[in-house]
């Protein structure tokens, strides 16, 4: 059974990123095991802790390790990804040589309440995931704008879901 790890880059209670993630996970093949990986309680990454990591780091690294696919849904904060998401990426990338991201196929979805749809965050994620050696479904690019208008009671419109389905299919196709 395919395991899908979902990382939502916003820790906000009513996060639009989380609402998009809830929509996107429904589009994976039946039987996909979905696990949302919490990033809110990870202490700020500190290299001194590589030797003797806090339990929260260990748990998060283990959670990433058991996934076959990773879906990132990121907001845009000041023209890049959120600090919480960057922290999570850093935590699971270390100690050096033991990154648990290595080789895991990823799908990046960015979203924002503006028309630019988190495109800066999306491109910054591409840069980071390239370095972390994660194959990324490059097309279609998932940049979701005006989230507060598109999401009605948390539900995406059918046209957007149809588009997202093509992105999910491209993600699943990266599985070996
Ligand atoms: C600190 C901060 C910086 C932001 N910077 C941007 C930005 O650069 N571009 C953008 O489109 N929206 C920006 N926004 C608005 C976010 O797109 C909006 O708050 C979005 O809902 C965040 O995602 P969330 O609902 O999952 O928390 C910013 C919001 C915050 C809180």
User: So how many helices?
Assistant: 6
CATH homologous group name: Flavodoxin domain
Span of the ends, CA to CA = 13 Å
Number of domains: 1
Classified by CATH, the class is: Alpha Beta
Integer average pLDDT: 98
User: Would you tell me the structural class of the helices and strands?
Assistant: alpha/beta
Strand content: 5-15%
The helical percent reads 25-40%
Give the overall silhouette.
globular
Assembly classification: single chain
The CATH topology label is Rossmann fold
Q: Secondary-structure map with pairings?
A:
Layout: E1 3-8, H1 16-25, E2 33-36, H2 55-65, E3 69-74, H3 83-92, E4 106-111, H4 119-131, E5 142-144, H5 147-150, H6 158-172
Parallel strand pairs: 1-2, 1-3, 3-4, 4-5
The structure holds flavin mononucleotide.
Notes on the protein architecture:
The chain has one domain: 3-Layer(aba) Sandwich (Rossmann fold), CATH 3.40.50.360. Helix content is 36%, strand content 14%. It has six helices and five strands. Strand 3 (69-74), helix 3 and strand 4 (106-111) form a beta-alpha-beta unit. The site of flavin mononucleotide (FMN) has 15 residues, from helix 1.
Short description, anyone?
36% of the residues lie in helices and 14% in strands.
Search tags:
176 residues, alpha/beta, Rossmann fold, five-stranded parallel sheet, binds flavin mononucleotide
